[in-house]
Amino acid sequence: MKTVYTCFCTDIIHEGHLHIIEEAHKLGKVIVGALSDKALIRYNRFPTIPFEERVRMYKSLDGVDEVVVQDDMLYDDIIDQIKPDYVIHGDNWKTGPEAILRKSAVRSLAKYGGKLIEAKYTTTESVKKIDLKLKEKLSMPEYRRKRLRQLVAMCPIVKTIEAHNGLTGIIAEKTVVETDGKLDQFDAMWVSSLCDSTAKGKPDIELVDFSSRIQTLNDIMEVTTKPIILDGDTGGLTEHFVYTVRTLERIGVSAIIIEDKTGLKKNSLFGNEVVQTQDTIEHFCEKIREGKRVQLTDDFMIIARIESLILEQGMDDALKRAFSYVEAGADGIMIHSRKKEPDEIFEFCDKFREKDNKTPIVVVPTSFNSVTEEELSSHGVNIVIYANQLTRSAFPAMQQTANEILRCHRAKEVDSKLMPFKEIITLIDEL
Ligand code: SPV
Ligand code: MG
């Protein structure tokens, strides 16, 4: 009997999947590959049901003879392993990022003469509706909130990019690239105080009030599903912070990072060039403890940010604070540095990991930007935040365009550098 292989990564079975199984069943024994969470999250939608449940669901389908695990998004390993006579897939993977998956299937089948069958992709209204519903489900607070913890458990390093409005949120949500023969995308978003303030033309001194920050979060959440880490500055007064935690938790933010500074906060990239005061360990621990006390779910994370290296207080102070903050209940530690090289970050991580191998470590490599994700991960870092690069790339482009229109007294000269609006709006979903 011939064998037919198809890979599923869906949380809901619709007529399109049933059609694939029907076609496969006509050809022989049907083996369905269940794509692992780890592989799935690199190129597709985040799962809303656990892997084991997906496997059970695929197994229960009429016409499915066997379910196996596909651990890599590329088909090479699984095809080498089971050598099916046929691989069947919808014909929607010929273009776009998924074309590399198709390529991997074609290349592996060619090794022994296996055949690729491409069934017409089902695009009925009901399939579109199911797709949209799945996406909407992920944007619900209860799914989004817990996703950061899930990602930390699943990924070697959680890749986080700054977003400060709907459009940058969409870029964070939808950018998928082919890199090193695989597809990749960002895992989470950072709502930076610096970029949120800058977008409003204001300095980064906790001037943009919480209602306005919430509005930014709302704009982003409206059009995205990925988890959000909020830059909470100092967290403000402890008496206010407890209410902030409740609000963020309710709307589905995954984590707040608060920094151990007090008084008029200035951006860390200024370091000691401006007056900045570090909070006492006791007072900051109390803020963390209070935040944890009022939390209603197990999902939300309070991450403590240590400014000792920024303020040149030394490694011992940074480590002492880290252990104290974890003791007070912090769900993660962010260690920041203004140095060009990552050495002090590595030293901190290595020393911290000698005593604590589970509390997530977060870093923001703005100054030490030559460091790779792999290097950070090898020193025990769990979350990397690209904190301001979108703002810094958009600003000079907009400034140049404004200059050129003024110089030329018309817009013709700039046009070739601009994206047609027709293209921009392809990013924007219509209901
Ligand atoms: C931010 O993005 O607002 C931050 C990170 O707090 S940094 O600007 O590096 O201090
Ligand atoms: Mg900030």
Q: What does this protein structure show overall?
A:
By secondary structure, the protein is α/β, with parallel strands linked by helices. The chain folds into 3 domains: 3-130, Rossmann fold; 140-387, TIM Barrel (Alpha-Beta Barrel), CATH 3.20.20.60; 393-425, no CATH class. It is built from 18 helices and 17 strands. The radius of gyration is 24 Å and the shape is globular. Bound molecules: sulfopyruvate and magnesium ion. Sulfopyruvate is lined by residues 192-194, 204, 231, 267-269, 364, 366, 387-388. Sulfopyruvate (SPV) is lined by residues 192-194, 204, 231, 267-269, 364, 366, 387-388.
| Uncertain regions spanning at least 5 consecutive residues | none
**Main beta-sheet annotation:** 8 strands, parallel, barrel
CATH class of the largest domain: Alpha Beta
**SS elements, strand count:** 17
Structural class: alpha/beta
Characteristic terms for this protein:
single chain, 431 residues, alpha/beta, Rossmann fold, TIM Barrel, 8-stranded parallel beta barrel, 17 strands, 45% helix, binds sulfopyruvate, binds magnesium ion
Summarize the structure.
The protein is α/β, with parallel strands linked by helices and 431 residues long. The protein contains 18 helices and 17 strands.
Topology:
Layout: E1 3-8, H1 15-27, E2 29-35, H2 37-43, H3 51-59, E3 66-70, H4 76-82, E4 86-90, H5 99-110, E5 115-119, H6 125-139, H7 141-154, E6 158-162, H8 166-174, E7 176-179, E8 182-185, E9 188-191, H9 193-199, H10 210-222, E10 228-231, H11 238-251, E11 255-259, E12 261-262, E13 277-278, H12 281-294, E14 301-306, H13 315-328, E15 332-335, H14 343-355, E16 361-363, H15 373-378, E17 383-386, H16 389-408, H17 412-415, H18 421-424
Parallel strand pairs: 1-2, 1-4, 2-3, 4-5, 6-9, 6-17, 9-10, 10-11, 11-14, 14-15, 15-16, 16-17
Antiparallel strand pairs: 7-8, 12-13
The chain binds sulfopyruvate and magnesium ion.
